């Protein structure tokens, strides 16, 4: 079985938030024709601004002070991206659909079901879920052999890893194609079975959850916990800085899923602090305030 990467030209990214914008921007840099989809135009406008900022950062890094080359790079990449609120229309032309909507199982199942019969039979469906089982997300799909997880990391432009998740039905051709797709996007691909949190989040979520418990117990301040993990454990960011980057709502959704999976494990008991932050809309960098204030 060989890879079908030469047939992957049109990429549809569903969800134009933090991750969708990052994935769309970097897929455009890699030369794919990308359409990014969200629920309303305002969100797409915000995403476009975010993509432009990212491309500028990537371009500056790549071409140093050469303003002509930087501008050329940005314009060429932007030309590869269009946006839409009409998923059912744009999906007809997709060779691969990458889902990056809210971390909610029912929402993801519903989205994939809505496009199942409309997308080309050859199109590959992939979810960027942080921790939900890919097999559950694909439950209502009639193309299980073309279903997989493609888990990118935040910020997509910087993080070099892509976790590729196979469900038992994922075909060898689909697997090889998405591994090549990841490589074309400049990522190092690792493979993991369809297990909760895959590799990175299976290890990261308990660490992040314990950091919140530490704060709630009053063992140390968030500033000291962050400093300790940066200077004492070599992390680029402390757990609270990282939670703000990831999004408190996304962290809560993943943690709640772990709680449902292992209700006896105290580590994932609902956190009053996290629940309050989500209620108050303090979701981290994306809303201007989380554990820290960015306004
Ligand atoms: N887009 C493009 N480039 C970016 C960027 C972005 N959003 N953020 C940072 N960069 C670039 C900068 O331009 C800079 O480039 P140069 O090296 O050319 O200067 C470089 O990255 C370093 O950035 P900064 O100097 O601004 O800041 P930093 O050194 O503190 O790095 C960081 C920022 C890369 C985010 C770093 O702190 C880091 O690696 N943090 C940890 C991130 C992490 O763990 N991510 C995974 C989260 S878990 C996840 O994603 C899975 C999930 O399902 C929740
Ligand atoms: P986000 O809240 O920034 O963006 C989600 C976007 O999806 C929003 O703009 C929302 O309007 C849109 N959306 C919701 N339902 C939709 C639908 N039915 N159709 C089209 N658009 C819809 O979230 P995010 O941080 O980008 O996370 C997206 C996914 O990626 C989640 O599954 C998350 O767990 C996963 N993930 C997040 C990170 C992270 O660090 N934030 C890292 C890796 C994976």
From TrEMBL:
Q: What is its EC number?
A: 1.1.1.35
Residues of the 3-hydroxyacyl-CoA dehydrogenase NAD binding domain: 10-195
**Which GO cellular component terms are attached?**
mitochondrial matrix
Task: Kindly list the residue ranges recorded as spanning the membrane.
Answer: 12-37
- Per UniProt, the enzyme's principal EC class comes to oxidoreductase
**Where is NAD(+) annotated to bind?**
15-20, 38, 103, 108, 130, 154, 286
State the name under which the record lists this protein: 3-hydroxyacyl-CoA dehydrogenase
The taxonomy runs:
Eukaryota, Metazoa, Ecdysozoa, Arthropoda, Hexapoda
